[in-house]
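Q: Sequence in, structure out?
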Amino acid sequence: MRSLPALLAAVAVAVAAAIAAALLWPRTLPVDVALVRRGRFEATVEEDGRTRVRERYVVSAPVAGTVMRVDLDPGEEVSRGQVLAAIVPAAPPLLDARSRREAEDRVGAAEAELRRAVEALAHARTALAQEKVDLARASKLASDGIVAHADLDKAELAVDLRTREVAAGEFEVHVAEHRLDLARTLLARLRDPTRDSGGAGEPWEIRSPVRGVVLRVLQESESVVAAGAQLVEIADPGDLEVVVDLLTEDAARVAPGARVALERWGGEAPLEGRVRLVEPSGFTKLSALGVEEQRVNVVVDVVSPRESWSNLGDGFRVDVRVVVAEDDDALVAPASALFRDGSGWASWVVVDGRATRRTVEVTRRGTRVAEISSGLSPGDAVIVYPGDAVAEGVRVTTRREEEREGG
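A: Exactly. Output:
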């Protein structure tokens, strides 16, 4: 039987050997990986946007006077010609040559605006007719397999956009007609105050120039107002567009017709949109950090069916993702797996349980993924968000990125 000192010595030797083995045993580093794949690549520009109605009309007081209480509520539908408010005109001023000339100029300007609106509407209708002819031609060619279905989709989108332009043109004509009527009525009143419909002190009825929905009541209570005071704002909430201000370097990559995904707007599924306009002039805006940025407004049309976004209204916030480049057959890797290597790019690839550095040629880089031209192959497991502990030859234990995100 061994003595107690000998037993304790053996235990001490065994513990020391275990500690030494643990210290000398190669350590493994846990990392998250994703697989390089061949598939669709999209380079996108992402920014917050807001919705707005395409055409809105602010009904204003045609003359100075006392406006009666407006019995309308936001969300209430109104028809064209419906009485919105009534105003009792103030006593007419002494007529002089200057007042007469100003009133006549207003009538002339309103007539010119009406002619411009009519010409613009005629142009929009002609363009719509041509787009319909192009759509019919594209539909026939697509059915014969001569053109791709993507070209047919573009033709259908062009018809939809032209249809909206015609609707907007009709709206502008109605508004111009209404303004001309107001200008003529005011000129007639200045020339002969006794021509008021109800005599002195009788209220004038202010009618809606268009059919739509009341967005805001700007002057609800009875009060004395000046000529031009805003009373009611009317628009069609179903005719929405989205405005997003992008950095100028991002806006330069966006072209009219580009596909757009509208996310986090309140519904379950993203909405589809198309870029209609990249405004030609930029502006300066302060960022959240107080840095001056040059930005450009980009206007997006919502092309998803109205039924899918019926709860979306004017001035709502949405996340906008504009597709600026795409490829259906690209070698795709997560952008988070790339890091700078001098003037180029590199990535860590897991080979036989160890991290291996690879130099990578990047064709295009998006927000989430990048298109790779060389350096990686389909099926390669690349380390995403590699830390400083990752080095050449380090043993790693891996788990897939989608599992880390809670798959």
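The chain has three domains: 28-41+328-404, 44-52+238-326, 55-235.
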